[in-house]
Write a structure and sequence with these properties.
The chain is an alpha+beta fold and 160 residues long. It is built from 4 helices and 6 strands. 31% of the residues lie in helices and 28% in strands. Strands 1-2-6-5-4-3 form a 6-stranded antiparallel β-sheet.
Length: 160
């Protein structure tokens, strides 16, 4: 990874790990294959008491990058995607940009398969300070990602 990408990624991680949020609802949705259930997590980003702005105003991209990085790190290939899978690959700033779009007033991240990894991760951040994290076939891994961000599990930086 080029140095400027690494530096930009570190800055995004720095802002993304500083975001204050709460999990308001977790819902498991069954799929035809029981091992492929969908997990939908509703998030709240409370407003700052002084400004009434949510931390998403300055940290939305960082939050998305951190969750996407954790999802990418946990993701594994499935069936033919093993062809493109590289064990020591990293989620990149350019990956974040390619997976982002704006729809209906919300910032959305969506990743299906990325370089051989089955991410199946969607994140929606809304201007009202709410958000949704949805995964398919990822088990309860998204709960662990969020717990890491809340300090319930240790988050560590891995140096190459």
């Amino acid at each position: 990874m080029e140095e400027f990408q690494r530096t930009s990624g570190y800055r995004l991680i720095e802002s993304g790990t500083a975001i204050n949020f709460q999990i308001s609802k977790t819902e498991v949705q069954q799929c035809p294959d029981p091992a492929e259930f969908s997990l939908r997590i509703e998030l709240d980003f409370p407003p700052d008491a002084d400004s009434e702005e949510t931390e998403l105003e300055w940290g939305a991209f960082g939050f998305l990058f951190v969750i996407a990085t954790l999802s990418f790190a946990d993701a594994r290939p499935r069936e033919v995607s093993v062809i493109d899978y590289v064990e020591d690959d990293e989620f990149r700033v350019e990956d974040l940009i390619e997976c982002l779009h704006w729809e209906g007033g919300a910032l959305k991240f969506g990743a299906d398969y990325l370089r051989g990894r089955r991410m199946k991760t969607d994140i929606v951040l809304r201007p009202d300070g709410s958000g949704t994290l949805t995964t398919v076939g990822r088990g309860k891994a998204p709960i662990r990602w969020l717990e890491r961000l809340q300090g319930k599990q240790k988050l560590r930086l891995i140096q190459p």
